[in-house]
Amino acid sequence: MSAFADIPFEKYHGTGNDFLVIDAETYVPDRRGLAARECNREAGVGADGVLYLALEDQYSPPRVIMTLVQPDGGTAPMCGNGARVAGQWAMERTGSDEVMIDTQSGTRHASREGDRIAVEMGVPTFQPRGIPATADGPLLETEIAGLEVSVVNTGVPHAVAFVENVPDEFVDTDALEAGVDRLDAVDLDAVAKPVRHADIFPLGTNVVLASPNDQGGFDQRTFERGVEGETDACGTGAVAIAAVARRLGMAESDEPVPISPIGGDLEITFDGERATLIGPVVHEFDGTVKSTHFSFEP
Ligand SMILES: N[C@@H](CCC[C@H](N)C(=O)O)C(=O)O
Predict the structure, then answer these.
(1) Residues 46, 232: contact at Cβ < 8 Å?
(2) In the chain, at which end, N or C, are there fewer CB atoms within 10 A of the end residue's CB?
(3) What atom of ligand 1 comes closest to residue 231's alpha carbon?
(4) What are the contacts of 284-288 at 24+ separation with CB within 8 A?
(5) Do domains 6-122+282-290 and 128-264 have the same CATH topology?
(6) What pTM, to 2 d.p., does this model score?
(7) Which residues does the entry assign to the active site, renumbered to this chain (predicted)?
(8) Which class does domain 6-122+282-290 fall in?
(9) Which residue lies with its CA nearest to atom 9 of ligand 1?
């Protein structure tokens, strides 16, 4: 018999979007409680979510079933950076340079591309039913809760705003005068929360700010649903920026789109409408956390 068993985890990040990875075979009696406690950056290890990964290495290529539990205790149907982490994790275990990742929003192919991991992300949808959003047609350059956004689902919903359209009341003008970039001067919490919770989105949305940069791509900031705050990167959000930029004629349709979140550099490529997310993954350290429930072992 043991109380509060030790649960092994591995800590990874993809361009700063960080996760505790727990083998799904490990008995975790309270996944919701563990995520709430251990994602907290003061009281716990600190992370943007907990990835439960189940490896099925009898297949070729190997498969991994991915479940993301977010700090609010809920699960998300997809996570682009989490899928890149899942790909790296499964490749480390199997020696394979490609794996299939089963997510709640579909099966995704991941491969090693030099020192980066690429995940095929499917076709972004602008149709309201697929967002989901209560609207008669695609929401493009539409004002929602005081912000002009274009809305797309890239596995999860994203409302994408270009920084020049953020109202001045949300921008720190002193910071601008001191030379801070407009994207960095935005009060993201203040501008994003009303959109994140707007009635038009029955399941809520993530909110992404994009700013054209010198590399022919976009700098990114993201307010994430489930984290309920800003993260250093968001893979589905990066794909959302690229998809919206192509749709609005702000990016070449045949060229890779470089996206730079706070935590590093990502690249989005398209095969027709099908997007692929490419970027680095880092295995940071390993450890154990306590289970949140008293547990009995035989
Ligand atoms: N960080 C993720 C997205 C995770 C899900 C999101 N917070 C949601 O609830 O929709 C990514 O890299 O895509």
Answers:
(1) no
(2) C
(3) 1
(4) 284/11, 284/12, 284/13, 284/18, 285/10, 285/11, 286/8, 286/9, 286/10, 286/11, 287/8, 287/9, 287/11, 287/45, 288/6, 288/7, 288/8, 288/9
(5) yes
(6) 0.96
(7) 79 (proton donor), 234 (proton acceptor)
(8) alpha beta
(9) 225
> Separation of 85 CA from ligand 1 center, angstroms?
13
From ligand 1's centre to the CA of 78, what distance in Å?
Answer: 6
ipTM of the prediction: 0.99
| Whole-number pLDDT of residue 254 | 86
At residue 298, does pLDDT exceed 80? no
- Residue 190 burial (10 A CB sphere; 0-12, 13-18, 19+): exposed
In the predicted model, is pLDDT for residue 116 greater than 80? yes
Chain centroid to CA 96: 24
On the question of pLDDT at 113 being above 80, the answer is: yes
pLDDT score for 241: 98
Measured from CB, residues less than 6 Å from any atom of ligand 1 are 17, 70, 76, 79-82, 156, 206, 224-227, 231, 234-236
Query: What tokens does 83 get?
Result: 């899928």
In three-state secondary structure terms, 158 is: strand
Using an 8 Å Cβ cutoff, are 264 and 233 in contact?
A: yes
| Exposure class string for 166-178: b at 16+ Cβ within 10 A, else e | beeebbeeeeeee
| Residue that is written with structure tokens 């309201």 in the block | 128
The class level of CATH for 128-264 reads: alpha beta
Tokens coding 236: 């589905």
